Predict the 3D structure of the following.
Amino acid sequence: MHYNLKFVCIQNETYRYLGYDPERTQNWDSVDLLFNQLCQELSSKFIPFGYIKTYDLNVQDQAMTIETPMPWQLESQDLKKHFEDCQKVSLIALTLGTEFDDFLAESLQQDAYTKAVMADAMGSAAAEEAANQLSAIVKELAEAQGFNITSRYSPGYGDLPLDKNQNILQSLKDDEPKIKTLESFLLSPRKSITALIGWHQEKDRAWVSANCTSNCQICTFYNCPYRKTKNLKDVN
Amino acid sequence: MNRDFFNNHANRGQSPFCTEGQRVLVGDGAMGTYLQTLGLWPTGSCPEMLNMTKPEAITKIHREYAQAGAQWLKTNTFGANPIKLESFSLENKTADLNKRGVYLAKKASPDLPIWGDIGPTGKLLQPLGEFSLDEIISAFYIQAKALKEEGADGFLIETMGDLAESKAAVMAIRALGSNLKIACTLTFEPGWRTLSGDDAETIISVLQALNVDILGVNCGFGPDEMPEVLKQFAAFSDKPLLVQPNAGLPLLKNNQTVFPATPQDMAQAVEPLAKAGAIFIGGCCGTTPQHIEAMVKAAANTKAPPTVEKDFSSFSGFGQTVYLGPNQPLLLIGERINPTARKKLAENLRQERYDLVAKEAKSQIEAGASMIDLNVSLPVAKVPEDQRLKELTLAVQRIVKHPISLDTPHPQNMEAALKVMRGKPLLNSATDDDDSLLAISSLAAKYGSAILGLTLNKKGIPNTWQGRFAIAKYIVETALSHGINLKDIYIDGLTLTAGASQSELPETLKLIRAVKEDLGVKTILGVSNVSHGLPLRPYLTTAFLIMAMEAGLDAALVNPMQEDLVLFTKAADVLTGRDKNAVKYINLAATITPQKEKSKTKSKAKVIASKKTKPKRNQRDMLKDEILLGNKNIVVSTLKELIAQGVSPLDLVNSCIVSALNEAGGRYDKKEYFLPQLLMAAEAAQTGLAYLHPLLQETGAQPQGTVVLATVKGDIHDIGKSIVKLMLENHGFSVIDLGKDVEPSLIVETALSNQADIIALSALMTTTMPQMQVVCQMLEEKKVFIPVLVGGAIVNAEYAQEIGATYGADATDAVRLALKLLKKEGGT
């Protein structure tokens, strides 16, 4: 199923990506003005495009199988913990489109570095937000069938390898796919996300909220520069 | 219920129908989404066309809402403006569709008041979009005229994401009649700003000046989220509030948009919405007659808090609103953009270097001004004054959020600037001369601005306060008769010089008291004139300003750069009770560093002495500051001046540009700057270097070294790499940028054939990072030693060491390392 999502500008998230430190950074009006102008431009130009497809999930001792017409397996201990008790899984993907990449490239070509970098960060925040919008739809779909959902889990998290991007996109089957993987299994266009969301019927799982956008709590990449919670760098 | 509803209700926040005071009224719900639910609006068609093709269905919906108890109806004309209709090739039907819309609503209920519904055009205004303010106004005018002619009782402008477009719609309706009732509601994004970045305070400031009768919010959010923004509206608005929430936040279900709130959910929301300040509550997307029926029942005994007229008035700019009033600090209006006796500024204006002039706005704001006066009068100039004011307004609003005062005695020269102005400005100024007063009052009413009246007439300035009071009274009455709010009329009692007119100074102070008490308007004064012709001017100016504050002055035109003036007014804010509990003063003290404070408390004698010997500010330092603040439009002109003075280009690069970049890098490392600030500084430096480049070549200066730069094979992230390129070039490196997803062999070959000094590689993912090693291995195989610099989110120092490369944490680090690597190479 395809969905047109909304490009939302999120200032605090964008600034955080750009290294804004609320205690130390003395921001300028001109930066805020650039954000506002870009917000108007980007949200009128770009419509994030999303996919959702839901399959049965078969969790065995050794592996988890996603029962697509050509079933494939998830070999990940981290994800296994996450999907314990799940009977179904929604595969989701979304992209801001090649046009967004073109927009960044054009800005760079014109030597508009600040604009490009700001738009890049706004795009990252908007893609995350669009993934939240897709997760909310999955939640609705699941609840209609009496299920709860886990939080989003993407290739690259924990020990889930990036090559699963390819499996997810193949399973979402689109005649004119808007997202593809490169040899390195990175997604193209750049502002694209794939993820898995498990369906379960347990009521008391502590960390299953679909609205939980802060996955830093469960992420093991402690030195990530974008980590929201206190990271090891600060502790050491 | 009859159509006087609008007159009675909208004007006073009271209605004869609200016999119990502030009883909440509930209006109808959604049209568009309800049509969709009923299967009447196929995707891609024009919903207003149903007024023609399925009139009975539209009437039925109106009737259902009326039967549900709705206390007003909206016409099915949301998208019936010619710009939007053009996408269906229906622009020629604009009048018909709107008239039909009113007709059908009236037919469904002859008694209920009818709001002519006006939604956005879907187009952006200049400079972001292709449409001018006048074009958007014309489109709305055609729609509003048809709605009015068919007898709509008022207008509801709704779902606006841009305050400028809302303003255009209001202006179009106002062009049809100043007494027409207008409600205007905007749609907010998360963070409570509209799509264009307008906040509630600016929206209120601008729309109240245009005499919009009802303000508020619709769409975007469900009833649970709305109270938060309504409370902001209630805190600043003088007008009654309207809210139309969606039936919850939309969800996509089976590819259909679904609004989850039930009629009971919406009914439960009525009380919190009313408590937050909404006296009018309707429904937006997803609401149906069932929702409205439940809401009407819930509202039966619900009251909203009274609409209170605030004691403050406001000006606003592009996102910053400032207030004046009894409990507000003195508003300081920076007066320095005025070419009189400022040769350089006059020259910049003459040469249309508006960005350079605008910079003066920014420095005044930084010095403590909250508003900027723009005076561009020149005795002889190529460009007419109205164009100068317009261009300068655009330039100032590119870098400053604060409000503007348009300072010219010629009202006809204000309009071009008003067409592009964001926010609510001050029109400075009118006298009792009828031609100018009438013209300026019309402009203020039309564009929603405040006016400043000077108490002088053709004969000059009356000697007594009574003489000036008579003029003030005439100005206030004339402005009021044009529909300008009392709050938006300001009087300037005029400051004479202490040297020539000492005995008349008290008259100005008496006038301030009298106009405030008897006319109920606020006062503004230009104070610098008081010290004209006398020595030690700043002391006289500041002393007189503080006396005027004691008399009740609300705002002053000042030079905020004048030593200590801002601090004295902040102190006087405390002493005159404007700064309650000295909160602002104490906060201000916390921002002044001990060293600065020390210098502020230097004895006056010392200040005077040091002033005399203080050298003129070094132009090189100024250039450095321009770069540090990212003012790229000013860099080249400053460079030109320095070169004309005989400074060598190489010297400028080393002593100004590179040193500014190092400083910016240092601030970035300390997190005082974040990335956009570092890049704005770097862009400013690059502009300067691009200008100096040919001059440097003439002198035979060599680049620092050659760097081959690439994002590795398989990786498509090139933003970080581009930043490194910019920073390296700024530090004099020649950079060969191979782009992204680059084959290792191409990187090595390019480095060899160009005798590169350094190879710099970027990778963002663990899967592409090994490509860095491939490059290092190739170099080893070829037995060439070219240092490799690596960086990117996932790369770290350990990995770099492992593959025999050097790790750079970010762009400033890359520059430091590149310089270091070169030095090392030079030594061996």
Remarks:
- Chain A touches chain B through 60 residues (CB under 8 Å).
- Chain A has a mean pLDDT of 83.
